[in-house]
# Entry
Amino acid sequence: MSSSRKSIPSWWPEVSPSRQRHLPALMQQQGDILLHHRRMVNFSSNDYLGLRHHAEVVSAAVSSLQQDGLGSGASRYVTGDHPAFHRLEQELASWKGTEACLLAGSGMLANIGLMQAMAGRHTHVYADKLNHASLVDGVRLSGAVSHRYAHRDLQHLERLLNKHTSKQRIIVSDGVFSMDGDEADVAGLLSLAEQYDAWLVIDDAHGIGCIGPQGRGLVAQAGVQGHVRLIELGTFGKALGGYGACILATSSFIQALIQRLRTVIYSTAMPPSMAAAMSVSLRLLQDSALRQQLHDNIEYFLMLNSDIPLLPSNTPIQPLLIGGDVAALHAAEQLKGEGFFVAAIRPPTVPAGSARLRITISAIHSREDIESLSTALHRL
Ligand SMILES: *Cc1c(COP(=O)(O)O)cnc(C)c1O
# Structure
């Protein structure tokens, strides 16, 4: 231990054993996890609709790979652009009911670039305390004055908005919160944004594809799609089963953003095969039977587990609060022993004392999977 500490910067704080992170090198087969030759049902994937392994999605990627090759070769602004990107952007904008859309390499890159592009030293950003790390880091990088309001507490947000006067204000929130599974009050946030002349950024990485009419997410559920003050972020790594992200807003906003989104300007474009596959995912997720299966599974899970302390959530994210870091790790190990992969989420990803099992439900889980997981949860 002491010799290994010599080879890292002396000012890095030590990570306590119960908070250490691991790269588990697990293999997967059609959504199941293989770890040390044991098969486990995956209850921690964000592949909520099972599109990652869908034959049509995979074959769209394969055809494009054969035609377009693997990498895109350059930034979109140089020679890395491809018609598949423009097609996907149009499809996403038309599905979401916004004027325009711009792709980004990942949700992390989209948020970091978007906040950096939108905010500067004179901007005040009002952020939910439980926002995703990508938004937190984006605000930091922008140099904006950051105000964090208590989770989903619009009264607290309004008090903070009243405290400072600024001509440059942005309210930023996850849509469906990634570690809690609960939902932002998008309509409430938008009405405060109007009242206080602020922009509103909603990152609905976990809502898009799952929630709302045609799976169009929380913003569509709130009925405020296409509002001029609203900038929405979606990712492809979750319900769409791929990798990448998109920013949805008015045409004039997106045109201006193209001039200043550094994480896209100075980064290699995503592989064209990914965009080709995401067009197919987008078509498939509009199939209501697939989303119905997801919601039936969520309901079934909730029914079987109404007597255990799950955090309140109607989304695919169903966290079971454990509290201590070590206890959460033990619970996850016990579930592994019973054939279920459920991630223990610990601080600093979640607040201290709120370590949890982050259970996620997918349309591809069978009734038996859900029943046996529920039995195992009751044994914990
Ligand atoms: C997963 C996630 C991201 C990051 O997206 P990636 O494409 O995985 O980088 C951003 N925001 C939220 C709310 C997320 O859950």
Notes: The CA atoms of residues 327 and 355 lie 8 Å apart.
